[in-house]
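Holo prediction. Input below; ligand is adenosine monophosphate.
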Amino acid sequence: MDDTILVLNAGSSSIKFQLFSVGPGETLERRVRGQMDGIGTRPRLLVRDAAGAVLADRTYDPREMADASQAQDVLGAWLVGHMGGAPLAVGHRVVHGGSTHIEPVRVDALLVEELERLVPLAPLHQPGNLGPIRSILRRRPDQFQVACFDTAFHRGHPELADRFAMPDWLYEEGVRRYGFHGLSYEYVASRLPELAPEIAGGRVVVAHLGNGASMCAMVDGRSVDSTMGFTALDGLPMGTRPGQLDAGVVLYLVAQKGMDAAALERLLYHESGLLALSGVSNDVRELLASPEPRAKMALDFFAWRIAQLTGALAASMGGIDGFVFTAGIGENAAAIREAVAHRLAWLGLRLDPAANARHGPRISSADAAIACYVVPTDEELMIARHTLAVLRQR
Ligand code: AMP
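Structure of the complex:
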């Protein structure tokens, strides 16, 4: 099949993928979505078509699929069999593009080397992202591949939003506030002119609330500030990450508790956040359903921090005209949206309860000073669009 774009979002224990067909007028239509997960533990391939019908559901012996590279081989074979050939192009989600990449770029060996050098800046995500890029480059050097970066959308930040108050040598070697979830924000920005024309050209806070959570200050569809910084640990509390943290806590854990980098990584990426606060779960669905007072406290903390950081982002923009919720929690949890709006009532954010219960798109009340929307994100479609655009520019 020669009219297909394959989108890959590869992590350390899972590979998510989608296939889009390129139609007349360069339209993109989603055909297939699937994932290979449980790599190394309980490998499973689950693939559905656009209507949700299951196309494949297979489990594998973990000895046959002990690592991501073997999983890529199995997935590659399934895809080629399903498509009857290679795709027109493959678009990859790559978490880190460093300080230079402000847009998606065609993959070649030099780029892979450059992106490898960024692994220390994103050690949990970058290696997984680069795995399939490297293996396709090795097996099918002519396959057109495009890398799409989660940092790129934020690279236009003014210097103030890009720096820590630390010595220059750290800044020069890349210790900067990059910001992440850029593909999601870029997609939301592309939807605003149609869905929310009255705020698309204005000052908007977009809250990407999913497993990872961050917020972006957007002026006229461009990012000017983000709650995420050097890594995806900054800003809002997340399922298992604490969000913004006094660096003195890390010093204390090292000096007084003898924690090394591996122990800190476990604590900060996997054992903190809503899970730690609630003692119940990292999943907002479970927290909303839980009778435990600590579950309620964790959700209050989440909404409180969203409201606090909205104030900070509004200050970065010199005001605020709109607020947008997106990603798993932002799109589905009406109670969280209500809790955030309640805390931002002083700013003029008021919801229409019926519209909020319907999940939008517009959920603010007629008398609200700030327009509020729910805009479902689609990072894979954003990657497919970029991939096709880079292919056509060739
Ligand atoms: P994402 O990373 O965007 O896929 O978001 C995943 C998170 O969204 C999950 O961990 C849940 O906490 C949350 N989520 C998904 N569906 C719902 C729902 N119906 N109500 C509340 N939270 C939800």
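The radius of gyration is 21 Å. That is the main takeaway for now.
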